[in-house]
Amino acid sequence: QVQLVESGGGLVQSGGSLRLSCAVSGITLDDVTIGWFRQAPGKEREGVSCISNSGTTYYTDSVKGRFAVSRGDATNTVYLQMNSLKPEDTATYYCAVDYLLSADQLCNVPGNRVTSLVLYWGQGTQVTASS
Known about the structure:
The chain is mainly beta. The chain contains 2 helices and 11 strands; from the N terminus they run E-E-E-E-E-E-E-E-E-H-H-E-E. The strands form 2 sheets. Strands 2, 4, 5, 6, 9, 10 and 11 form a 7-stranded mixed sheet that branches. It has a 4-stranded antiparallel sheet with strand order 1-3-8-7, with no helix packed on it. A hairpin with a 6-residue loop joins strand 4 and strand 5. The N and C termini lie far apart (40 Å).
């Protein structure tokens, strides 16, 4: 049974940092691409950063230079380090896995289709960056 559990969200001031964790069970990171997505109220879910089983990474333009994704293979956990947070980063953040898609493919699945095309999701963690 595949399970993903996110943690690390919270409330920070603009310019602050948070590190999100996605603990994965039921599969190994060597077999999948992992993605971090976010969804703000009234908006579609969007891919933020993805990392493939080979370590290839993808970042959406709005977070390049501020966010960094990494894998802890020994702990089967994926991390998203978020620095210089802005109010527009406020959203619920989700991790997801896919067996077939590359990092850029996973992060670019259209927002109105991503929850039906990608099977495995965590429950989400709230990130709020106050101005």
